[in-house]
Amino acid sequence: MEPSARAAPLSALDASPELLQSGYWATFKEAHGWQAHPFLVSMGDVEFPLLVLTRRIARLFRLAYVPFGPIRDPGAARGAFLADLARSLRPHLPRGTFLLRFDPPWPKGGESPHATGLRKARDDIQPPATVVVDLRPTEEEILASMKPKTRYNVRLAEKRGVTVDTGTSAEMDRWYELYRETSARDRIAIHSRSYYEGLFTAAAERAAAGGTVPAVKLLLARAGGEVLAGNIVLFWKKRAVYLTGASSGEKRNLMPTYALQWTAMRMAKAAGCETYDLYGCPPAADESHPMFGLYQFKTGFSPAVTERWGTWDAPLNRPVHAAYAAAERIRMWWFRVARKRFAGRRATG
């Protein structure tokens, strides 16, 4: 049976178990250049909410994006399901929409989403692989399931006097300083400070409108009164998501990042969350991968890596999509290759 989409109020998204499909996320993204389109999708007796985001490309065209959606995994004929869903959504999208991009949250396995009218995007938007910690066991059992070195570092941070607490809005300045330092050290692109402040603002705005919102926490690790690291973590229903983090290059021997993650897991468990998503890592232990250190750090908390299918495109205007895909390839080359080389030369010049 083919899916049938119809426009819905923003509140319909509050039923979604997926943070990036929530009314809160719609509110957040609308403050940063996107337009939110809530839908209810029916398939026989099954109905689920769907958030589609659109933004303007040049003057005449729009790109549509479904972050970590649709939440329903048909299991079989996945590609046909997404292609049918794209056809159902198309009449409801703004004029000039040339591409509908899906980022399904489905675990990789079984039949792939390949189908006529659907193609794998060259680059993934959301992390196609992540580490998810099961919070249902006791704290002692969760610690015992970690790799020995990670468990040791969690305890070492406590012995060396690292404490973790919830930061105030005034401490966002210090966190963003650390984030810029982290960006320069690891050569990663970051958003503006206002983007991250928007995570907290959107929660306040959505709550004021009567919507369901996550608990958004700025967690800071300190030693001797000095902020050494900080994470932004969101608690949404049964899931907690470590969205991003920053750390100082100094006093790393105190293991503040380990204290942060363990404290966030304990807080999430106390809040009723059943999983803690470390939000992205390489899919395998490849020492040549530029993010191999991140893989080692995150899999220390839970060795299993969850892989997803990544980003899939349903072109609605093929000539425009082809031109956009070419421009994307150039942009990705600049961010992943050229800019890093340029930054390296400046650092050694």
Describe this structure in words.
The chain is α+β, with helices and mostly antiparallel strands and 349 residues long. The protein folds into two domains: 4-122 and 309-348, Gcn5-related N-acetyltransferase (GNAT) (Aminopeptidase, 3-Layer(aba) Sandwich), CATH 3.40.630; 136-273, 3-Layer(aba) Sandwich (Aminopeptidase). 36% of the residues lie in helices and 25% in strands. The protein has nine helices and 14 strands. The chain has helices at residues 23-30, 78-89, 139-145, 148-159, 172-186, 193-208, 256-270, 292-299, 318-348, and strands at residues 4-7, 35-43, 46-57, 61-66, 97-102, 119-120, 129-134, 163-166, 215-223, 226-236, 239-247, 275-277, 305-307, 312-315. Helix 2 links the parallel strand 4 and strand 5 (97-102). Helix 1 crosses helix 6 (193-208) and helix 4 packs across helix 7 (256-270). The longest helix is centred in the last third of the chain and has 31 residues, at 318-348. The chain is globular, with a radius of gyration of 21 Å. The N and C termini lie far apart (62 Å).
Proportion of residues in β-strands? 25-35%
- From the 3D coordinates, which CATH architecture of the largest domain would you assign? 3-Layer(aba) Sandwich
Tell me the number of strands.
14
* The CATH C-level class name of the largest domain: Alpha Beta
* Largest β sheet strand count, sense and barrel closure: 7 strands, mixed
Number of helices: 9
CATH topology of the largest domain: Aminopeptidase
